[in-house]
Every structure is written in C-alpha cells, then in structure tokens.
What does this fold into?
Amino acid sequence: MSRKRLKELLGRYQQAIRHYCNSLGWDYNTFKNSISDEGISDPDLYLEDPNVNIVERITQFLDPSTQSSVFIIWDDVGMGKSSIRDFVSRSLNDLDNYHVVLITDPRLTSLQILRVIAQELGAEAEVWSDRAQVKNVLWERLWEIAEKGISLVIWVDEAEKINKDIISELRALSDLKNEDGSKACKLILSGTPSLMQKIEGYVKSDPEDAAAFEDRASLNTFRLNKWSADDIYNYWGLLAEYCGGTNPFLNEAAETVLQISEGKPRTIAQITKLAFHVKAMDILDGKDSGIEINSQHVLRALREQLGE
It folds into this structure.
C-alpha cells in the first residue's frame, strides 16, 4: 500500500467517525478518548451497578475508625480493576483529607517501592541505599501527614506480580498506628485470582510473619462481578451522556455483546468501539441511513476484526 493510499484511508475513516458523532450529537474528541485498548479509560465512565457494593465496602474500609488495614480486589484480566482504581483514587484525591499513592509497576523491588512511597509523600528525592534509612524517612512522613488529618492509601495494581518481600513490607506499613490508635495508612491490592493464591500460600509458608492475613477483621476481599445485558445497555447510556448526545445502541445488541464478551467490561468496551466504527463506515458508504446500532453491526464488526 502506498503512503498516499494510507493517508486517504485514514482521512476517510476519521471523516466517517466525525460524521457519525455529529449525527448523534456526540463530541468527536470526547468519544475518541473514551475507550482505549485497555477498555474503559475515563473514571467518569465507571459503571457502579455491577459492583454496587464495592464503593460502600471501600468507604467503610477507609474510615479512620476502622481498624481493617488491607483490602484485596480481584478477578480475571479485563474485569474492570483498573477502572475501579482510577475512579476511587481520583475521587479520594479530590478530597482534602486523603492522599493516594499508586504503585503500578510490579517489577519494583521492595526497597524501590518504599522509596517511591516516601518520595510521593514529599520526602527529598535522595538515593537511599539503606532499607532502615528509607523506613525511618517514610515513617516520619506518615506521622507528619497524619498530624495534618490526612489519611494515606497505598494502592498496588497488578499485585499478583509482587513477591513475598514486598507484601511483607507493605503489610508492616499498614500495621503502623497513629497516636490516636488509628491506622497510619491503608493498603489496597488489586490483581488476578493468582493474587489470592499468593496470599494463601504466603500464610501457609510463613504463618508467623503473615499471621495478620488470617485475621479477617483486618483483611477485606472483593471479587468483581461480570456485567449483565442490562449493565451493558446502561453503560452505553452513560457513554452517550458522557459524549453529549443520543444512545444509538439497541437493547438487542446488548444480548449479543454479552454472549461474546462473557460479561467482561474490557471486552464490552472494545466491541462497543468496533461496532460504532462499522456503523460509521456504513453511513459514509451509503449502505445505511439510520443511526441505530443493532446485533448485526456487532457481529459484522467482530467478523471484520477477526478476519472471519
């Protein structure tokens, strides 16, 4: 394919999407950024209905009077853990009395993670080589922010990839208490089912060091729920509202997407975007004049994507 031909196709493709967005009253740039390859990319598009209890559970967990120190969110890849992380962390950071430190690189060593947390809390960006020194600096910062009435939340994503040493260090941090007896920080781990297996194995292999994980008063777990057809349709309504216009997806399409996606939010979001693009190209090519997206558009989008 020539460079000129590629440029023409790209231009035509963008023209189709812009035209269809205009027909729906959607803002093109908002839609373009609303769904990524990772699924639902904006916290404003977080759909609470399938996991309505998790917000209440996390709220209770984060209350300073609650002695629980560890919260584990788990399920398969594509089930929306990142969406929940972004929604909760942004909501908390909008408040004056919470500070969230996100650990998104599970390849870090335990010492590196302690450094990251200390520096996120405003400690001078020195090159600490001594673990005891890093801990002292970190603990000092924990006391300082606690005196200001700020609650610290450490959120580790892809936590199934961290090792026992990291779990032990983070668990020790979550055990620290302020002068009033409240926890100095709370720890949230999100990951796949292997995270739960790792915690269970950790308890069995070193019961003395990991005894706190057996205390159900200090450990909360939440397994995410798959979406239903109603959830999918509600998500489309939320997407349309977010983009500023009409929802073009028909109810029948939700049942088709459910069967294909098995209720996984990331797959649902990706299918949504593919079907939207197919519909836009049909309109541009004169093959379709309506604005609705039905089951056939969904199935055609998947056939074209998979080459079948």
